[in-house]
Design goal:
Elements lengths: L4 H4 L9 E3 L3 E15 L16 E7 L1 E6 L5 E10 L23 E12 L3 E8 L17 E12 L2 E12 L12 E2 H4 L4 H6 L5 E9 L3 E9 L4 E14 L2 E14 L1 H5 L8 E13 L3 E10 L5 H4 L27 E10 L8 E11 L15 E13 L3 E12 L5 E11 L1
Antiparallel strand pairs: 1-2, 2-3, 2-4, 2-21, 4-5, 5-6, 6-7, 7-8, 8-9, 9-10, 9-11, 11-12, 12-13, 13-14, 14-15, 15-16, 16-17, 17-18, 18-19, 19-20, 20-21
């Protein structure tokens, strides 16, 4: 998910919505999905696939927003959302769907409620917002996006440069939260660290600051996230994009460092030390005829903490992952490496607008000193083969079908299927 954050930040004007009089805009997103996660473990045996139980279900996610039109730079927005299965699913089959909290029921949530000021040089937002940043993100690739209680300031008065500063207080989002997810919890509670370390963080949030640079060929991002008494995250990415004859391409590098701080660093009894760096690179491109490719490589340093940090708070900027499966099926990614190669075709080139097909192979070279199966056997590899079809239609309709076959050494061969679509207005 390689994005220029400044141009995709949720403060930008909506592409959808209906005017209501002179002051309001109403918009929405009605989404539905059918999900299957087959772990080769129908009974949830803890000695198979890390105890992950076979899961499936059908869900509907309604979402409705009311937004004021800008007045002297100010505007406000509220968004209500929910998740329901209309009682159709068997609760025993919903263990790993992450749409409801585990064992939970349909729910509704005030997803967004914020006030924003925007001018040529300054932007300020306070409230609940589906914000996009590299390591804390709305992650709207599944059923219901994450949302955050956040205060953020953005300075954009310099050509090609943007500065950010802010504070995340709470988060909601079943898919990416280490807490309930169906309601707003503190960032400490929503983290993936152990219960003792969450308590020691005293309901803390996350401070952040960033610098971004972008011109015609170069983009650079430097982000700092500091969670007192949990850990610090430093994110850096540089990309170069250009064109060679019929090929438009982008190449880049990424470095992410995680380091425990405060009470978590002082806790010698929790069984882990968050202290590692992830180095990544990618080269992606697309030809004028619609053929495209994406490649990525990642190397995890020989340090601990992957299970407590990767994917927390919705951040998935990683360059060499699978389409559905990422980190959580391997025993451990310490000192591991991963490799991704993907091919794609945009059918717009042959007259079928907004239809894209992708096929991806991802391989993880695991370190058998650290990665073990649920039965305690050392693991040397994990691999995935994924297929995806995306289609946009009717100026608001969308559908994404994704299938991925997964194989981790000394675990059953598994697969997942996601059929997710909806209509934005």
């Amino acid at each position: 998910m390689k994005r220029n954050i400044a141009t995709t930040f949720l403060l930008a004007s909506s592409l959808f919505g209906y005017d209501v009089g002179d002051y309001l805009i109403i918009s929405g997103d009605e989404r539905a999905g059918y999900l299957i996660y087959d772990y080769g473990n129908p009974d949830g045996d803890p000695n198979i696939s890390k105890g992950h139980k076979d899961s499936k279900g059908f869900y509907v996610i309604p979402k409705l927003s009311i937004e004021t039109k800008p007045y002297h730079g100010f505007k406000a927005k509220i968004t209500g959302a929910g998740a329901t299965d209309f009682g159709l699913n068997d609760k025993e089959d919903e263990n790993r769907n992450f749409v409801f909290k585990q064992g939970g029921d349909s729910y509704a949530i005030l997803q967004e409620a914020y006030i924003e000021y925007d001018s040529k040089e300054h932007n300020v937002l306070v409230g609940r917002n589906e914000i996009v940043t590299p390591m804390i993100d709305k992650d709207d690739w599944y059923m219901l996006a994450d949302s955050f209680e956040v205060g953020v300031y953005r300075y954009k008065g310099l050509k090609s440069s943007t500065f950010w500063a802010g504070y995340f207080a709470k988060m909601a989002g079943v898919w990416d939260s280490g807490a309930d997810g169906t309601k707003f919890e503190t960032m400490a509670d929503a983290s993936f660290v152990g219960a003792e370390d969450k308590a020691n963080a005293s309901d803390g949030g996350v401070y952040f600051g960033a610098y971004e640079f972008k011109n015609d060929n170069h983009s650079l991002q430097l982000w700092e996230y500091y969670a007192p008494d949990l850990y610090n995250t430093l994110f850096f990415q540089y990309d170069f994009n250009n064109r060679y004859n019929s090929l438009a391409y982008v190449a880049g590098v990424q470095i992410i460092n995680f380091k425990e701080v405060g009470n978590l660093a002082d806790n010698d009894q929790n069984g882990y030390d968050i202290d590692y760096t992830l180095y990544q690179a990618h080269f992606d491109g697309e030809f004028n005829n619609g053929l495209g490719f994406a490649t990525g490589i990642a190397k995890y340093s020989d340090g601990d903490g992957q299970n407590q940090t990767l994917g927390a708070w919705g951040g998935y900027p990683y360059l060499a992952n699978g389409m559905i499966f990422h980190f959580f099926e391997a025993g451990n990614l310490r000192n591991a490496a991963s490799y991704k190669i993907q091919g794609s075709y945009d059918f717009t080139k042959v007259g079928i607008k907004s239809l894209v097909f992708k096929a991806r192979y991802t391989y993880y070279d695991l370190d058998s000193k650290y990665s073990f199966s649920s039965a305690g056997l050392p693991q040397e590899y994990m691999q995935m083969i994924g297929l995806q079809l995306k289609y946009n239609f009717l100026e608001g309709g969308y559908f994404t079908g994704t299938y991925e076959k997964h194989d981790t050494e000394h675990e059953p061969k598994t697969y997942a299927l996601r059929l997710i679509g909806g209509y934005k207005f």
